[in-house]
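Hey all, sorry for the wall of text incoming. These are the two entities for the joint prediction.
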Amino acid sequence: MMNIQIDWQAFTPISLVGGLLLGVATVILLLGIGRIAGISGIFSSLLKPKRVEAWQVLFIVGLVVSPVLYGLVKPLPAIEMSTSLPLLIGAGLLVGFGTRLGSGCTSGHGICGNARLSPRSMVATVTFMLFGMVTVYIGRHFLGLI
Amino acid sequence: MLKNMIGLLAGLLFGVGLLISGMTDPTKVQGFLDVFGAWDISLALVMGGGLIVAIIGVQIAKRQPTSWIGSPIEMPTTTVINKKLLIGAMLFGIGWGLVGICPGPGIVLLGAGQWQAYVFIPAMIVGMLIYQWLEPKLG
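and here's what came out:
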């Protein structure tokens, strides 16, 4: 039997505040201009110079500038990540290709789609969460890659 | 003009939300995905919190004839669950698990000056371009 142990030391209740803010940003975009906050979709539209809209460019600019804005109030939170080039490149390729093939990521399916109770988004969310978990399980506990 | 300002504001708020939530710390994301290790469940609160607000927003949107700027509110109309959706979500999940970065946090990490994001995001762009190139053949 595999044991599930929750690491309460690492638990950060403030994550809820971050989540609520993601919801607010999503709703502002939906009610404000009638568009879905799907990051992979908005970002990929920047790769289609003939079809991209100015608000999409500005949304991405907002994401890039957000750490600067955050930094004005308090120091950026801890960021710890892999330094393996093959892992970063492979993961980037998979995330780019996969989010386009599957029409969305953690934002478009995970928040917007699930909020619309879209069965398509629910299936996508369960699938990428499950495969993310399996990847960490195998990559960390068997291969020692992660 | 207003449309662009709303786009910028939403991007800024989304980015700050990601930073506050812990989603921009790839090790924390992997801790959330590591169900059978020392499981950090914090990030369940991120999707939960986002969903609570977004569900209310969607209900309001359904009762609005147009958006604030007068444009139609565009909701995706595709409902089909097919191989493309499943394989796409699967590949995305594997990539997400490998380094703990999904597209939003990856873009925010560019602005945070994290060098790994300058490797990950160009690779993500290449992945997207490969899809664009293959798209006509995938049907």
